Amino acid sequence: xxxxxxxxxxxxxxxxxxxxxxxxxxxxxxxxxxxxxxxxxxxxxxxxxxxxxxxxxxxxxxxxxxxxxxxxxxxxxxxxxxxxxxxxxxxxxxxxxxxxxxxxxxxxxxxxxxxxxxxxxxxxxxxxxxxxxxxxxxxxxxxxxxxxxxxxxxxxxxxxxxxxxxxxxxxxxxxxxxxxxxxxxxxxxxxxxxxxxxxxxxxxxxxxxxxxxxxxxxxxxxxxxxxxxxxxxxxxxxxxxxxxxxxxxxxxxxxxxxxxxxxxxxxxxxxxxxxxxxxxxxxxxxxxxxxxxxxxxxxxxxxxxxxxxxxxxxxxxxxxxx
Length: 322
Known about the structure:
By secondary structure, the chain is mainly alpha-helical. It has a single domain (3-318), classed as ABC transporter involved in vitamin B12 uptake, BtuC (Orthogonal Bundle). It is built from 16 helices and no strands. The chain has helices at residues 3-13, 18-32, 37-57, 68-84, 89-107, 116-136, 138-141, 166-187, 190-200, 202-207, 212-238, 248-261, 266-286, 291-305, 307-310, 312-318. Helix 2 packs antiparallel against helix 8, helix 3 packs across helix 12 (248-261) and helix 13 packs across helix 14. The protein starts with a helix and ends with a helix.
């Protein structure tokens, strides 16, 4: 690797001035906005889920309609671990990440064959298979009623999960920050540069000696583990896991987050999560029956007007991306 390339990657990996401020405000938000801790927790979880999809979609060019498979696997793994083994949330989180990563590694072989349309159907099929398995083995998963009676122990042995969601929000935000830093480091590394080369032109990447199949398998497994962490956070902070975690709607929603925030830029998933959840919460409070209409109208305007113009407050963030 030439010195110029190294300098370019090092410059891209440096934190911009606004980034520490953003994350400090995010970590302080459960205390500053304690009455909104529950929605802050939801935003952190879906933001982490969106970051995981951006790793395979934005940086690798692999479109997935079944990313909820790994989210759901993480949720059920964390819930079952807490109920049957031990209630420690951090240990459960690590186990859920490990199981989801293993599932992603196994499923990664399916994305290496066929066209983009084939991959769409295969990834969707994996999620549907897991949904049906979770429904079939109701004695373990609770079936359509969901896995109930999940009681989490105190975080770090000291902080109980309260009804107001403050502990849950801080926990989810810290996990989001940790995985965001790791994902950012990965994206700005030589490995990330090879992923973008594969995304831009797979044949050219193969011609210059990049092991395309191996790179895609690794990033798919990593993204699955991150999605599993998001699912685990959902199960741990709500004490419940249902078939909904495998639903197509969840995969579609996380895709919408990246449509709103933009792909190939990890902050796009965070921005999309904030905008989408705030719109969903605000509009559903005004018109519970028709909130999806207004979300759809917003997306149409986003496409017609352009993301940069409609979401102008976020454009200064995008100036810092590589």
